[in-house]
Amino acid sequence: MTLDKLGIGKYGKIIAVRGHGRLRHRLLDMGLTPRVVVHMQRKAPMGDPISIYLRGYELTLRLEDASMIEIEEVSL
Amino acid sequence: MIIALAGNQNSGKTTLFNQLTGSNQHVGNFPGVTVDVKEGIYRSDKSIKIVDLPGIYSLSPYSSEEILTRDFLINEHPDGIINIIDGTSLERGLYLSMQLLLLNIPMVIAINMMDEVFANGIVIKTDSLSEFLKVPIIPISANKNEGITDLMQAISNLVNNRCAPPKQDFCSGAVHRTLHATAHILEDHALRANVPASFAAVKIIEGDEPMMKDLALGKNEKDMIEHGIVEMEHELSLDRMAAIADMRYQYIEDICKLAVVRPTTDRHHSRTIKIDNILTHKFFGIPIFLGIMMLIFWLTFGVIGSFLSDLLSSAIDALAKIVSAGLTSFGINPVVESLVIDGVFAGVGSVLSFVPTIIVLFFLLSLLEDSGYMARVAFIMDKLLRKIGLSGKSIVPMLIGFGCTVPAIMSTRTLTSDRDKKMTIFLTPFMSCSAKLPIYSVFAMAFFTQYRALVMIAMYLIGMLLAVVSALISKKFVFKGNPIPFIMELPNYRLPTVKNTMLLLWEKTKDFITRAFTIIFIASIIIWFLNKFDIRFNVVQDSKDSILAVIGSLIAPIFIPLGFGNWMASTALITGFMAKEAVVSTFAVLLSTGMENISGSLTTLFTPVSAFSFLLFTLLYTPCVAAVAAVKRELGTKSMFVVVLLQTSLAYTVALVFYQLAILIR
Question: Chains A, B: CB contacts under 8 A, how many?
Answer without folding.
Answer: 121
